[in-house]
Amino acid sequence: PGGDVLSVDEGRWREAWDLKVFGYINMTRLYLDAMTTRGDGIIINVTGTAGENPDPNYVAGSAGNASLMAFTRAIGSTSIDSGVRVLAVNPGPVETDRITALLKTWAEAEFGDRERWRELTKKWPMGRAAKAEECADLVVFAASARASYISGVVLTIDGGLGARP
Q: What is the CATH number assigned to the segment(s) 10-94+130-159?
């Protein structure tokens, strides 16, 4: 949920973490043992760059994403010894209905016109959000044999946005 630490009540915070953070943890717990026994497998967690670049007005999500990054690194650092790779793909802004709705809200606040939302993406790399297909391509690569030595890491796909001052 959106909001700062004082506006997100405990119930909303727990609901969000139950879905996202504990969802990933529980899925990992469900499958990791069987993968370890088999000696093969890959778990790819899709997180979000708010974990690397926290937003005080999205504090529950930022903290949740950071938690998932630490979880992924911790599990993936040793699971590889049993043939199981665990890593994360970490998208920045992605061209979806959700981001478009957010940008329209921000454009209304900044410009007084929801239809000027594309102006807000001009400062992003290539003047746009990532395409869902670009994120999917990274997941496919990460799951492939060509990425067989990758585990315990977070692969950020944001066009370099998070590295900008």
A: 3.40.50.720
Angle between helices 21-38 and 59-79 (to 10 degrees): 10
87 three-state secondary structure: strand
pLDDT tens sequence across 139-164: 999 999 999 999 999 999 999 999 98
Task: List the chain domain ranges.
Answer: 10-94+130-159
Provide the pLDDT for residue 1.
85
Question: What per-residue confidence (pLDDT) applies to 165?
Answer: 87
Computed over every residue of the chain, the mean pLDDT equals: 96
158 neighbors 91 (Cβ within 8 angstroms): yes
Nearest to 55 by CA among 96, 9, 93: 93
